[in-house]
Design brief:
alpha+beta; about 270 residues; about 65% helix
Amino acid sequence: MVSALEQNTENKIRLLLFIQFSCLAFAIVIILVSAEDLRKKIVNPLKRLMILAEEAAKHNFTVRSGLSGEDELTALGHTFDDMATQLSASYANLEARVAKKTIELEKSHRALQLLHDASHHLYENAGDLCRGAVPILKAVEKLLDIGPTSVYLTSNDAQTNARLMTTQTVTRPAYCRDHSCNACIESDHEVNLREWDQNSENLVIPIYAAKEQLGVIEIQIPTGRNLSERALKLLDTLADQIGTAIFVNNKNVEKQKLSLLEERSVIARDFMIL
């Protein structure tokens, strides 16, 4: 009987050990599966979210979470993706606007510098409007991407206009008196000049000085193109400067004529006295 009891006890102990080892193995398996599940569903998504946050801080909005599932972290990752897409579009739009404003500021600076140079050139070449105005008009054409420009003066009968200068021509103009000046001659761009004539329309800007119209500026611009308000203001200001230069030049010519007449009158009086 004692032997049977010992045998029964040993069997129970073996069964208990088996159950304990089985429970331990099952617990280890559960722990491993849980750890792997935590790694896949929590640790890795959190790492991806951290990468997204770090890249967003560097203004890199091209990285995506790549998460899939229906848990909260996946929903958060998708929210991060949508936010990155919106931020990328907003940032690109902002960069485009900044670049556009930068270009506009550069053009404004160049326009102001051009107006300053115009005053300087017109003052230095007060007796020769062609030399003073043609380089400035060419600079305006390059800045605004417009075609050849011509300046016409209103004749005494106010019915016809006589060309005072032009910026681009193939042959020397008939009105040119200074054959040493080649500012307006463009012998290498005859084809381009013909293309401008065929694919452009004229913009006419009046020239005023002392409330009197002295002439007009005729500019060729590409057909169908509308100049901005800033460009038109630049052209109006330049027209005012040219008008002032023409007005001052006319006054100087009149003064010279009056001085010459006075000298002749004095000489005539002296001759009559003698």
